[in-house]
Amino acid sequence: MNKRSLYWLCQVGGWLFFILLQSVFLNWNSHFNSLVAFNLFLVFFFGVLYSHLFRFVITRFHWLKLRTLALASRLLISCIFLGTLMNFTQLLFEGFVKADHPLFSDIDVQTAVNNSLNLSFVFFFWSLIYFLVHFVENYKKAEIENLKWQASINEIELNKLKSQLNPHFIFNSMNSIRALVDHEPVKAKEAITQLSGILRSTLLMGKKKLISFDEELGIVKDYLQLESTRLEERLRVLLDIDPRASGFEIPPLMIQTLVENGIKHGIAKLTAGGELSLSAKVNGQEKLHIVIRNSGKLGTSTTGTGFGIKSTVQRLQLLYGNEASFSITGENDSAVITHLVIPKNLRYENTDH
Questions:
Q1: 264-275 confidence digits (pLDDT tens)
Q2: Rounded to whole angstroms, how far apart are CA atoms 308 and 326?
Q3: Which of 21, 173, 216, 279 could join 240 in a cystine, given CB atoms 3.0 to 4.6 angstroms apart?
Q4: DSSP letters of 187-230?
Q5: pLDDT tens profile 175-217
């Protein structure tokens, strides 16, 4: 149903309900007769007519945009005028029906004033409903616009983070390859081939703010293969992936960044190397739990001061709000555990950008 049809349905239904209440009250008091029925019809007909004209005045002169004080004074005067006009109209038609009485000859001033005030209250109640409906509608529109604006700001921030993240990843990978060039040129060539595969995958992502978990896992595996070429037996990798994780989408390079953080600040600094395990599980609340455990000691270099950690925290907040979580903890000074929780739905999933 469109707004115009809904308006007329409320108009007719509202005034019918009003005269129905009056007719029930009059019938209970044994005052109901043909003249009363005619008056009720007049109330309905002129109520719809005058309230519709009142709506025309409100929209024509933009009363919906007025301040509260200016609007209140206009409403008060208008409702008193409409109540008086409607009462006068009723008396006029009633005089025509009573042909044996002179027009307005049997008017009781006190009763006429009371009737006018009662009808004024009815019009005031009508105006309150009308303005309340428009207030709620405008509030919803403003809320939607605010969500769109907030989503646009988030999009800008995410693009800024991604533009910083890609060069950061390339720089670290090139440093790893440079360490192989002089002493192990064959492995360096293999590493360059692996890096080119990773870069090709990242370029295919385009400007996506989310990619499938499987796509991200493919990049992580390529990166781990690249690092295995450099670290050889010093890097041991374990993967435990829940098949249901494939149904999730995550921010590009988020897991790769955390894996890189664990290798760079943990395993690579250990003479004997260490182990990195990546676990992805889905719980009953439809949230993806990603746990990265790497050998090493939790210190200042891994507690959130690096770009990778800051980027992860910011991106999660922008995309998911408080629905996502991120933490890094130490385990007996021998391992670092990174725990990432990602929900299925975005914070502004249904908002147009």
A1: 888 988 988 899
A2: 12
A3: 279
A4: HHHHHHHHHHHHHHHHHHTTT-S-EEHHHHHHHHHHHHHHHHHH
A5: 777 877 877 788 788 778 877 877 776 666 656 778 899 989 9
